């Protein structure tokens, strides 16, 4: 029989408080308070403002910029919850940093995604939730149970409502082919691919050619994340050169590191569709941006986890 905990308590670090507040609004629960201070020496002080003894605690902390500050803050928060005798601690990481460092693909390099998972467990997390990991094997780095959700049903539902005529789904690279195929199947659309090549540790990959028919079609370019937008905008321009009409882009994580906003502003993108796993500051929000919320998804899975109901059944129907 599943162990029952006291009431739900939801906390948030400073990385994405708007998302945490939205999750609480869906659950009709307050967002619990914690004092977080940066001292002049860059040390972080944290104090919970209420008791969590025996409670089912959920901590929401994404790992977007400033990445390393948010990581340390997350670990300190977990330690505080553990030392305050929380009944169970579930960490919700909407965006998992260092996801590309998931294997030894060069001599003498770390597997930072695994290191981060170990730190999370050591700090006190007993469960984790995350959204669209860059590599599926990262789930195996954790020694605690957890759930990985996909935001692509949210993205695809929005695109279904738009009823884009003569559309084709385009995978941003061949490594994303399986997820793009599922996306195209959900939209009942044909699939094409952009072939790209990354040289060394250059964060920008070079788009080389399009595999599939995009001429005179409206292209929906899909990927899991957009960082500096160099690869994305290069792929968009490649699609336009190959005869695509309007180009829509859809991703889960809009990281938008500099100079992404400038690149997206000058690119021929009809609509840039993403989710709120990463907060977008006002100065980077462009008129053609559409941000969809994952808060209802997180709220439902929090409720099911607390009540001991199946999360898989809900995700299957989502």
Report the β-strand fraction as a percent range.
15-25%
Query: What's the main sheet like?
Result: 7 strands, mixed
Rg (C-alpha, Å): 20 Å
| Coarse morphology | globular
- Structurally, the number of domains stands at 2
CATH topology (fold) name of the largest domain: Rossmann fold
Order of helices and strands: EHEEEHEHEEHEHEEEHEHEEHH
What's the helical proportion of residues?
A: 25-40%
Structural class by SSE content: alpha/beta
How many beta-strand elements?
Answer: 14
Strand order of the largest sheet: 10-9-8-11-12-13-14
The CATH architecture of the largest domain would be 3-Layer(aba) Sandwich
Span between termini: 27 Å
Describe the structure.
The chain is an alpha/beta fold and 318 residues long. The chain has two domains: 8-150 and 295-317, Rossmann fold (3-Layer(aba) Sandwich); 152-292, Rossmann fold (3-Layer(aba) Sandwich). Helices cover 32% and strands 25% of the residues. It has nine helices and 14 strands. The protein has a seven-stranded mixed β-sheet with strand order 10-9-8-11-12-13-14, sandwiched between helices. The chain starts with 7 loop residues before the first strand and ends with a helix.
Brief write-up:
This protein is an alpha/beta fold and 318 residues long.
Write the layout of secondary structure elements.
Layout: E1 8-12, H1 17-27, E2 34-38, E3 44-48, E4 56-60, H2 67-83, E5 88-93, H3 112-123, E6 127-131, E7 146-149, H4 152-162, E8 167-171, H5 177-187, E9 191-197, E10 206-211, E11 218-226, H6 230-241, E12 247-254, H7 260-266, E13 271-275, E14 289-292, H8 295-307, H9 311-317
């Amino acid at each position: 029989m599943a162990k029952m905990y006291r009431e739900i308590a939801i906390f948030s670090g400073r990385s994405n408080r708007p998302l945490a507040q939205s999750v609480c609004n869906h659950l009709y629960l307050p967002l619990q308070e914690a004092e977080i201070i940066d001292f002049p020496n860059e040390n972080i002080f944290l104090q919970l403002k209420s008791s969590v003894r025996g409670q089912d605690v959920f901590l929401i902390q994404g790992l977007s910029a400033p990445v390393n500050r948010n990581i340390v803050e997350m670990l300190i928060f977990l330690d505080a919850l553990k030392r305050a005798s929380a009944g169970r601690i579930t960490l919700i990481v909407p965006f998992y940093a260092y996801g590309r460092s998931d294997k030894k693909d060069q001599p003498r390099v770390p597997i930072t995604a695994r290191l981060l998972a170990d730190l999370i467990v050591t700090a006190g997390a007993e469960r984790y939730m995350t959204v669209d990991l860059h590599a599926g094997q990262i789930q195996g780095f954790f020694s605690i149970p957890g759930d990985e959700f996909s935001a692509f049903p949210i993205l695809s539902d929005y695109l279904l409502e738009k009823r884009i005529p003569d559309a084709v789904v385009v995978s941003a690279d061949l490594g994303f082919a399986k997820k793009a195929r599922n996306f195209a199947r959900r939209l009942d659309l044909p699939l094409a691919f952009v072939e790209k090549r990354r040289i060394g540790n250059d964060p920008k990959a070079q788009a080389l050619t399009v595999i599939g028919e995009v001429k005179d079609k409206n292209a929906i370019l899909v990927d899991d994340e957009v960082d500096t937008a160099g690869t994305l905008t290069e792929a968009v321009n490649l699609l336009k050169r190959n005869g695509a009409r309007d180009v829509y882009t859809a991703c889960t994580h809009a990281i938008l590191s500099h100079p992404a906003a400038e690149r997206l502003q000058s690119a021929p993108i009809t609509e840039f569709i993403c989710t709120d796993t990463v907060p977008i500051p006002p100065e980077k929000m462009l008129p053609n941006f559409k941000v969809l919320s994952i808060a209802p998804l997180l709220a439902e899975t929090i409720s099911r986890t607390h009540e001991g109901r199946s999360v898989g059944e809900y995700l299957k129907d989502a």
